[in-house]
Design a protein that fits this description.
This protein is α/β, with parallel strands linked by helices and 729 residues long. The protein has 24 helices and 13 strands. It folds into three domains: 250 residues, Rossmann fold, CATH 3.40.50.300; 120 residues, no CATH class; 287 residues, no CATH class. The chain is elongated, with a radius of gyration of 34 Å. The structure holds adenosine-5'-triphosphate (ATP). Adenosine-5'-triphosphate binds next to strand 2 and helix 3. It is found in: Membrane.
């Protein structure tokens, strides 16, 4: 094969995987963005069973989740402004609002997915920290899983990683089995999760798998981001009903975002937090919402309108309506225990509206309703008639200056999060940071990584490619190295070794390139959930994928080596040596791939960097350019291909190799007789090695490859650790 054909040929062969790999890489995110397919298969959820996955373990009680005056900005954009609320055990809070109103951001802050250093929240009266957040499970909107694992495998691995190590395996199995049964997923427990490429669980089943995965740990608080997205109305209702029953019967706290609930779903909620532009437009019971809207001039014809749709339509109808609702909500919140507001926020908001109405100035520390009404100039036009708006003690009557339930509203309001005593002692101070030891994590992750990796490393497509390329190479260089070879054949032998070398290195590097970005979502999700250490993941991955990594390079080496008739026919150790070198360079290229992947963490960027590096390494490998300019020659020492090819040539052209001189036009010194010495008629191995720029002894090449193998892997880990942290407060 002409030398110049190598790069395009190898790139082409490797890139035949890209189309597939790239699509696989997109799988999880795209699927999430596109939403799950609706299969209507939740309608038969066993809503009566609400002891989800309890088995015989001690059930953790629900805890009060309280967030107070959360304000959050991204750059100059105010995403949330003074958002407060309290989700109670045994109850469901629904966070509603138009698209972009900040629902997911609110859940992300509480769930620790977004860093918000000034955001105050408590769980069971204790500040929300990395440790106390372990009581919260967060069901993300995207169903992020490894696509090749079955439902049962997915839940079992999760159970082994997230449930205490001291819990017997049998109990973990029982919990998983119960969850599968209770979520009515028996029939699909051996089905793979699947992705865009491979059909697996349906959209509804994936959603249930996502919820089951979070219920495994028996959380005190369950957060769900759009759990009904992509489901049809009956499926969505069944799911909402199950969550409601789960909250009521297990005494758990449930908080979920939801876009457009049906009326049946809407009435299941205990509290509705309606957001508009990051501010609270309504906070309270769903049954109070229509009277309040009515007071503000928005009448809902319930015979024709779903109240949930109605309130969303009003919020979306324009700035005036939205401001009116926020303003009314702000005033209600001044007396609201569960959903307090800062007076400065009310002032600022009223000031913003001052062009349209009188400015409100609220005194710093109102302690009674009278104070508020007498000393703070709330525009009368902004206070709805008390007789009509009073509801459940949440509204203040201007006439009576008392909340309807007779409780002083300011007593609760004056109590800040910091001053609230812990209300629940179930948060164990001594709880360990990780539910399992590093040893256990590595063991579980290694098995999972092996199962997941075998589909990627040993796919039928890859076998076909490897066999195909190896057979073509074998035929092209058929028995080129057998017996006494001619000098002219030397270039064929160096070519075949270089080609196999480059082919396997490219394959190994690009395989890894796809892995990290696609696994990142799952790993980040799990790490943010506090499932395991990054080091455990990295070590497990390295160990478990090692046997998978060597399969295909070994196959191609064996086929090409013997078909091309290389030196193994004369010296069997030359064959084993070449095979080991091939494995070594495959691992080194894999390490390089890990480094590139973690340095970029993006397939497109990684691809560009990887191609640049591999082409450079090929050029510096000694095959194409025999006389690298001296000022550039040091760069050859950065190339794994240079070292591996050198090693292969050392094994192929050892002192026993007999290469006949071309008597007419020999390129080798040893073929030319001089007055001092006569040529033996055979080319000296040292001449062949020298002409191919093999300047270093074998041990230097081996040590250099090992150093690169370890070095790139360690740098990759450091980059992952430092620059790709999942954000947790
Ligand atoms: N990284 C970011 N940079 C800039 N703006 C952002 C960023 N993340 C979120 N936002 C903005 O924050 C606002 C709230 O986003 P969020 O995802 O919380 O809304 P949402 O109510 O959950 O919307 P949806 O119902 O469509 O999921 C949106 O306007 C969004 O564009």
């Amino acid at each position: 094969m002409p030398n110049g054909l190598f790069p395009p040929a190898v790139l082409c062969l490797v890139s035949c995987d890209f189309a597939v790999l790239k699509v696989q890489n997109r799988t999880m995110t795209e699927e999430a963005l596109l939403g799950s397919k609706n299969d209507g298969d939740l309608s038969h959820v066993k809503a009566t069973r609400t002891d989800f996955g309890h088995a015989d373990r001690q059930v953790q009680p629900g805890l009060e989740l309280r967030f107070e005056n959360l304000s959050f900005k991204i750059k100059d954009k105010q995403i949330l402004e003074d958002v407060s609320g309290t989700a109670h055990p045994g109850k469901v809070m629904a966070v509603m609002g138009p698209s972009g109103s900040g629902k997911t951001t609110l859940l992300n802050i509480i769930g620790g997915r977004v860093k918000c250093s000034n955001c105050k929240a408590t769980i069971g009266g204790q500040p929300l920290t990395k440790k106390t957040r372990r009581k919260i499970s967060y069901v993300l909107q995207q169903d992020i899983f490894f696509p090749n694992l079955t439902l049962q495998q997915t839940l079992m691995f999760s159970a082994e990683l997230r449930l205490p190590e001291s819990m017997p395996l049998q109990t973990k199995k029982q919990i998983v089995a119960e969850l599968i049964e209770q979520l009515d997923m028996e029939k699909c427990k051996h089905t793979i999760i699947g992705d865009n490429m491979t059909r697996g669980l349906s959209g509804g089943e994936k959603k249930r798998a996502n919820i089951a995965n979070e219920l495994l740990t028996d959380p005190a608080v369950l957060l769900l981001d759009e759990p009904t997205s992509g489901l049809d109305s009956s499926t969505a209702y069944a799911l909402t009903l199950s969550l409601k029953k789960y909250a009521v019967h297990s005494g758990k706290t449930v908080m979920m975002t939801i876009h457009q609930p049906s009326i049946q779903m809407f009435v299941q909620f205990d509290t509705v937090l309606l957001l508009s532009g990051g501010q609270i437009a309504y906070y309270g019971s769903p049954k109070d919402v229509l009277p309040l809207f009515n007071e503000l001039g928005y009448n809902c014809d319930v015979t024709r309108y779903n109240p949930a749709d109605f309130i969303l339509d009003i919020v979306k109808s324009g700035e005036d309506a939205s401001n009116k609702l926020i303003s009314a909500s702000n005033r209600r919140r001044l007396t609201e225990v569960d959903c307090p507001i800062l007076k400065s926020t009310v002032n600022a908001f009223e000031a913003k509206l001052s062009g349209k109405d009188e400015v409100v100035v609220i005194r710093d520390s109102p302690t009674t309703v009278e104070d508020l009404n007498d000393n703070n100039s709330i525009p009368m036009s902004k206070i709805p008639d008390s007789e009509n708006q009073l509801n459940g003690g949440r509204h203040v009557s201007r006439d009576t200056a008392e909340p309807m339930n007779g409780k002083c509203p300011f007593a609760g309001h004056a109590t800040s999060i910091e001053s609230r005593a812990p209300s629940n002692n179930s948060l164990d101070e001594d709880e360990k940071r990780w539910p399992t030891s590093s040893r256990k994590q590595i063991a579980v992750l290694a098995v999972r990584s092996f199962i997941q990796g075998k589909y990627r490393y040993l796919s039928t497509l890859k076998f076909i490619k490897t066999f195909g390329v190896a057979l073509i190479c074998g035929l092209v260089w058929w028995q080129a190295g057998r017996g006494e070879i001619q000098e002219s054949v030397v270039v064929d032998l160096t070519s075949v070794l270089f080609f196999v070398n480059v082919f396997n290195s490219f394959n190994s590097l690009f395989d890894v390139l796809v892995v990290f970005p696609s696994e990142r979502e799952v790993v980040n999700k799990e790490r943010m959930g506090g499932s395991y250490r990054l080091s455990s993941y990295y070590i497990a991955k390295t160990i478990s994928e090692a046997p998978l990594t060597i399969v295909l390079p070994s196959i191609s080496t064996v086929i090409v080596y013997w078909m091309a008739g290389l030196n193994g026919f004369n010296d069997i150790w030359a064959f084993f040596g070449t095979w080991l070198v091939m494995i070594l360079v495959t691992f080194t290229a894999q390490s390089l791939g890990m480094f590139v992947s973690t340095a970029t963490m993006d397939f497109e960027h990684g691809l560009v960097l990887a191609i640049f590096l591999m082409i450079s390494f090929m050029l510096l490998g000694g095959f194409y350019v025999k006389n690298i300019p001296p000022w550039l020659s040091w760069m050859a020492y950065l190339s794994p291909i240079y070292f591996s090819w050198s090693l292969m040539l050392l094994l192929e052209f050892n002192s026993d190799t007999r290469v006949l001189c071309d008597n007419t036009t020999s390129a080798f010194e040893s073929c030319v007789s001089t007055p001092e010495r006569n040529s033996t008629g055979y080319v000296l191995s040292s001449d062949i090695l020298q002409s191919n720029s093999v300047n270093d002894p074998a041990w230097v090449c081996v040590v250099s490859l090992l150093a690169m193998l370890v070095g790139f892997r360690v740098i990759g880990y450091i980059m992952l650790r430092l620059f790709h942290k999942p954000i947790v407060k």
